[in-house]
Design a protein that fits this description.
This protein is mainly beta. The chain is built from one helix and 17 strands.
Amino acid sequence: MKSSSLKILIIYVLLLSSCSLPEQENSLYLTQVFEYVYGVGQHVSLATDGVEELLVGVSHSYVVLGGWGGYIVAGFDHDVINTTGMYDFGIYTQEGTGDEPAVIFVMQDENNNNLPDDSWYEIKGSETDRDGYERNATITYYKPENLDDNIRYRLSNESTVHELVNGSGTTGSWWWPYYDSINADEHHAITTGVDSNGSFITFQGTLLPPSKEYKDGQWKDIPDIFTYGYGENYSGLDCQSIPYGRTTRRANLFNIEDAIDEEGQSVT
Protein backbone atom coordinates (compact mmCIF):
# COMPACT_ATOMS: atom_id res chain seq x y z
CA MET A 1 0.00 0.00 0.00
CA LYS A 2 1.39 3.43 -0.86
CA SER A 3 0.22 7.01 -0.73
CA SER A 4 -0.78 8.83 -3.88
CA SER A 5 1.24 11.61 -5.40
CA LEU A 6 -0.32 14.85 -4.24
CA LYS A 7 -2.24 17.24 -6.43
CA ILE A 8 -2.20 20.53 -4.55
CA LEU A 9 -4.07 23.47 -6.01
CA ILE A 10 -3.99 26.95 -4.55
CA ILE A 11 -6.60 29.69 -4.83
CA TYR A 12 -5.98 33.19 -3.51
CA VAL A 13 -8.99 35.43 -2.87
CA LEU A 14 -8.50 39.18 -2.51
CA LEU A 15 -11.12 40.74 -0.22
CA LEU A 16 -11.13 44.20 -1.76
CA SER A 17 -11.95 47.31 0.21
CA SER A 18 -14.93 48.98 -1.39
CA CYS A 19 -14.24 52.49 -0.07
CA SER A 20 -12.15 53.48 -3.09
CA LEU A 21 -14.53 52.09 -5.71
CA PRO A 22 -17.23 54.09 -7.54
CA GLU A 23 -20.83 53.82 -6.38
CA GLN A 24 -22.40 50.81 -8.08
CA GLU A 25 -24.19 47.61 -7.33
CA ASN A 26 -21.71 45.03 -6.05
CA SER A 27 -21.33 41.69 -7.78
CA LEU A 28 -22.07 38.47 -5.93
CA TYR A 29 -19.18 36.88 -7.81
CA LEU A 30 -15.48 37.46 -8.40
CA THR A 31 -14.88 40.42 -10.68
CA GLN A 32 -11.16 40.36 -11.50
CA VAL A 33 -8.30 37.91 -11.99
CA PHE A 34 -4.82 39.19 -11.16
CA GLU A 35 -2.59 36.12 -11.64
CA TYR A 36 -2.92 32.64 -13.09
CA VAL A 37 -0.23 29.98 -13.41
CA TYR A 38 -1.03 26.40 -14.38
CA GLY A 39 0.86 23.67 -12.53
CA VAL A 40 2.27 20.64 -14.33
CA GLY A 41 -0.67 18.29 -14.91
CA GLN A 42 -2.66 16.39 -17.49
CA HIS A 43 -5.02 19.15 -18.64
CA VAL A 44 -2.48 21.58 -20.08
CA SER A 45 -4.51 21.80 -23.30
CA LEU A 46 -7.24 23.55 -21.29
CA ALA A 47 -4.86 26.20 -19.92
CA THR A 48 -5.24 28.52 -22.90
CA ASP A 49 -4.84 32.30 -23.07
CA GLY A 50 -7.69 34.03 -21.29
CA VAL A 51 -9.11 30.89 -19.66
CA GLU A 52 -8.66 32.47 -16.23
CA GLU A 53 -11.48 34.91 -17.03
CA LEU A 54 -13.91 31.99 -16.69
CA LEU A 55 -13.55 32.53 -12.94
CA VAL A 56 -15.18 35.96 -13.24
CA GLY A 57 -18.95 36.27 -12.89
CA VAL A 58 -21.16 33.34 -13.87
CA SER A 59 -19.75 30.75 -16.27
CA HIS A 60 -20.69 27.13 -16.81
CA SER A 61 -17.08 26.36 -17.68
CA TYR A 62 -14.24 26.16 -15.19
CA VAL A 63 -10.57 27.03 -14.73
CA VAL A 64 -8.05 24.20 -14.35
CA LEU A 65 -5.07 24.73 -12.05
CA GLY A 66 -3.10 21.57 -12.77
CA GLY A 67 -0.81 19.86 -10.29
CA TRP A 68 1.14 20.99 -7.25
CA GLY A 69 1.56 24.75 -7.08
CA GLY A 70 -0.86 25.78 -9.80
CA TYR A 71 -2.76 28.84 -8.57
CA ILE A 72 -5.07 31.71 -9.39
CA VAL A 73 -5.47 35.10 -7.68
CA ALA A 74 -8.85 36.81 -7.96
CA GLY A 75 -10.79 39.55 -6.21
CA PHE A 76 -14.23 40.92 -5.39
CA ASP A 77 -15.39 44.50 -5.99
CA HIS A 78 -16.49 44.96 -2.37
CA ASP A 79 -15.71 44.05 1.21
CA VAL A 80 -16.47 40.47 2.21
CA ILE A 81 -17.62 40.74 5.80
CA ASN A 82 -16.43 38.26 8.42
CA THR A 83 -19.65 37.19 10.12
CA THR A 84 -18.85 35.27 13.29
CA GLY A 85 -19.92 31.64 13.20
CA MET A 86 -21.18 31.78 9.61
CA TYR A 87 -19.75 31.05 6.18
CA ASP A 88 -18.56 34.20 4.41
CA PHE A 89 -17.82 33.07 0.84
CA GLY A 90 -17.82 29.98 -1.34
CA ILE A 91 -15.75 28.53 -4.17
CA TYR A 92 -17.75 26.61 -6.74
CA THR A 93 -16.66 23.14 -7.80
CA GLN A 94 -16.73 21.68 -11.27
CA GLU A 95 -19.15 18.83 -11.85
CA GLY A 96 -17.62 15.64 -10.53
CA THR A 97 -16.97 13.50 -7.49
CA GLY A 98 -13.19 13.13 -7.25
CA ASP A 99 -11.74 15.27 -4.47
CA GLU A 100 -8.71 17.39 -5.42
CA PRO A 101 -8.31 19.54 -2.27
CA ALA A 102 -7.27 23.14 -2.95
CA VAL A 103 -5.67 25.39 -0.34
CA ILE A 104 -7.38 28.78 -0.01
CA PHE A 105 -5.70 32.06 0.97
CA VAL A 106 -7.38 35.41 1.63
CA MET A 107 -6.03 38.95 1.75
CA GLN A 108 -7.51 42.21 2.99
CA ASP A 109 -6.74 45.25 0.85
CA GLU A 110 -5.20 47.15 3.75
CA ASN A 111 -3.53 49.83 1.62
CA ASN A 112 -6.71 50.42 -0.43
CA ASN A 113 -5.01 50.20 -3.82
CA ASN A 114 -7.19 47.35 -5.14
CA LEU A 115 -4.13 45.16 -5.77
CA PRO A 116 -3.10 41.83 -4.19
CA ASP A 117 0.06 43.21 -2.57
CA ASP A 118 -0.75 43.00 1.16
CA SER A 119 -0.42 40.02 3.53
CA TRP A 120 -1.93 36.68 2.56
CA TYR A 121 -3.51 34.41 5.16
CA GLU A 122 -4.28 30.73 4.72
CA ILE A 123 -7.75 29.43 5.53
CA LYS A 124 -7.21 26.73 8.14
CA GLY A 125 -8.59 23.35 7.13
CA SER A 126 -9.05 20.00 8.78
CA GLU A 127 -5.53 18.85 7.85
CA THR A 128 -3.64 21.94 9.02
CA ASP A 129 -0.60 20.95 11.13
CA ARG A 130 -1.30 17.22 10.79
CA ASP A 131 1.30 14.72 9.57
CA GLY A 132 2.21 15.47 5.97
CA TYR A 133 1.20 19.14 6.17
CA GLU A 134 3.95 21.66 5.32
CA ARG A 135 3.84 25.45 5.08
CA ASN A 136 5.99 27.23 2.50
CA ALA A 137 6.77 24.00 0.68
CA THR A 138 8.31 24.19 -2.78
CA ILE A 139 8.50 22.07 -5.89
CA THR A 140 11.07 22.78 -8.58
CA TYR A 141 10.52 21.53 -12.13
CA TYR A 142 13.54 21.24 -14.45
CA LYS A 143 13.51 21.88 -18.18
CA PRO A 144 14.72 18.79 -20.09
CA GLU A 145 17.48 19.29 -22.64
CA ASN A 146 15.25 17.32 -25.00
CA LEU A 147 11.72 18.65 -24.61
CA ASP A 148 10.29 15.25 -25.53
CA ASP A 149 11.76 13.82 -22.31
CA ASN A 150 9.85 13.66 -19.04
CA ILE A 151 10.16 16.58 -16.65
CA ARG A 152 12.26 16.09 -13.50
CA TYR A 153 11.38 17.70 -10.19
CA ARG A 154 12.71 18.26 -6.67
CA LEU A 155 10.61 18.77 -3.52
CA SER A 156 11.41 21.49 -0.94
CA ASN A 157 14.90 20.95 0.49
CA GLU A 158 15.45 17.47 -0.95
CA SER A 159 18.66 16.86 -2.86
CA THR A 160 17.11 14.02 -4.89
CA VAL A 161 15.70 14.87 -8.30
CA HIS A 162 12.75 12.71 -9.36
CA GLU A 163 11.19 12.07 -12.75
CA LEU A 164 7.48 12.44 -13.44
CA VAL A 165 5.63 9.23 -14.23
CA ASN A 166 4.91 8.74 -17.93
CA GLY A 167 1.56 10.15 -18.92
CA SER A 168 -0.30 13.01 -20.53
CA GLY A 169 1.43 16.30 -19.92
CA THR A 170 4.63 14.99 -18.31
CA THR A 171 7.09 15.88 -21.08
CA GLY A 172 8.82 19.23 -21.45
CA SER A 173 7.25 19.84 -24.85
CA TRP A 174 3.93 20.46 -23.10
CA TRP A 175 5.27 22.92 -20.57
CA TRP A 176 8.31 24.95 -21.42
CA PRO A 177 6.82 26.99 -24.26
CA TYR A 178 4.27 28.08 -21.63
CA TYR A 179 6.70 28.59 -18.73
CA ASP A 180 9.25 30.39 -20.91
CA SER A 181 6.56 32.96 -21.68
CA ILE A 182 5.91 33.76 -18.00
CA ASN A 183 7.44 36.84 -16.40
CA ALA A 184 8.18 35.52 -12.91
CA ASP A 185 8.47 39.08 -11.55
CA GLU A 186 4.72 39.48 -12.12
CA HIS A 187 3.78 36.33 -10.18
CA HIS A 188 4.20 36.18 -6.42
CA ALA A 189 4.28 32.39 -5.92
CA ILE A 190 6.84 31.32 -8.55
CA THR A 191 10.53 31.87 -9.25
CA THR A 192 12.65 30.91 -12.25
CA GLY A 193 16.36 30.44 -12.73
CA VAL A 194 19.21 28.06 -13.48
CA ASP A 195 21.16 25.72 -11.19
CA SER A 196 23.38 22.66 -11.61
CA ASN A 197 20.38 20.64 -12.81
CA GLY A 198 19.42 23.13 -15.50
CA SER A 199 16.72 25.74 -16.08
CA PHE A 200 13.90 25.55 -13.58
CA ILE A 201 10.62 26.98 -12.35
CA THR A 202 9.78 26.78 -8.64
CA PHE A 203 6.29 26.91 -7.14
CA GLN A 204 5.73 27.72 -3.47
CA GLY A 205 2.67 26.89 -1.40
CA THR A 206 1.17 24.67 1.26
CA LEU A 207 1.72 20.93 1.00
CA LEU A 208 -1.17 18.75 2.16
CA PRO A 209 -1.16 15.11 3.28
CA PRO A 210 -2.17 12.48 0.71
CA SER A 211 -5.92 12.23 0.17
CA LYS A 212 -5.80 8.83 -1.53
CA GLU A 213 -3.99 5.52 -1.14
CA TYR A 214 -3.30 2.65 -3.53
CA LYS A 215 -4.97 -0.46 -2.19
CA ASP A 216 -6.10 -3.70 -3.83
CA GLY A 217 -5.10 -2.41 -7.25
CA GLN A 218 -7.12 0.82 -7.00
CA TRP A 219 -6.69 4.38 -5.81
CA LYS A 220 -9.09 4.92 -2.92
CA ASP A 221 -9.98 7.91 -0.76
CA ILE A 222 -8.50 7.86 2.73
CA PRO A 223 -11.55 8.09 5.04
CA ASP A 224 -12.25 10.76 7.65
CA ILE A 225 -9.82 13.41 6.38
CA PHE A 226 -10.26 16.67 4.44
CA THR A 227 -13.58 17.28 6.15
CA TYR A 228 -13.53 21.09 5.75
CA GLY A 229 -11.51 24.07 4.57
CA TYR A 230 -10.56 23.18 0.97
CA GLY A 231 -11.74 23.91 -2.55
CA GLU A 232 -12.78 21.20 -5.03
CA ASN A 233 -13.51 18.96 -2.05
CA TYR A 234 -16.81 17.20 -2.75
CA SER A 235 -16.76 15.02 0.37
CA GLY A 236 -16.16 17.99 2.69
CA LEU A 237 -18.87 18.81 5.20
CA ASP A 238 -18.75 22.37 3.83
CA CYS A 239 -19.72 21.32 0.28
CA GLN A 240 -23.26 22.53 -0.32
CA SER A 241 -25.55 23.60 -3.16
CA ILE A 242 -25.91 27.38 -3.31
CA PRO A 243 -27.35 29.84 -5.87
CA TYR A 244 -25.39 30.26 -9.10
CA GLY A 245 -26.95 32.63 -11.58
CA ARG A 246 -30.48 31.33 -12.20
CA THR A 247 -29.68 27.84 -10.95
CA THR A 248 -27.66 26.22 -8.17
CA ARG A 249 -24.22 24.67 -8.03
CA ARG A 250 -22.13 22.92 -5.43
CA ALA A 251 -19.50 24.96 -3.63
CA ASN A 252 -17.14 24.61 -0.71
CA LEU A 253 -17.95 27.29 1.87
CA PHE A 254 -15.40 29.20 3.96
CA ASN A 255 -15.28 31.29 7.11
CA ILE A 256 -12.82 34.19 7.18
CA GLU A 257 -12.33 33.72 10.92
CA ASP A 258 -10.42 30.52 10.04
CA ALA A 259 -7.60 32.62 8.53
CA ILE A 260 -4.13 31.97 9.98
CA ASP A 261 -0.71 33.56 9.53
CA GLU A 262 2.60 31.91 8.58
CA GLU A 263 3.02 30.72 12.17
CA GLY A 264 -0.40 29.08 12.18
CA GLN A 265 -1.88 31.69 14.51
CA SER A 266 -5.40 33.08 14.08
CA VAL A 267 -5.53 36.60 12.64
CA THR A 268 -9.21 37.45 13.21
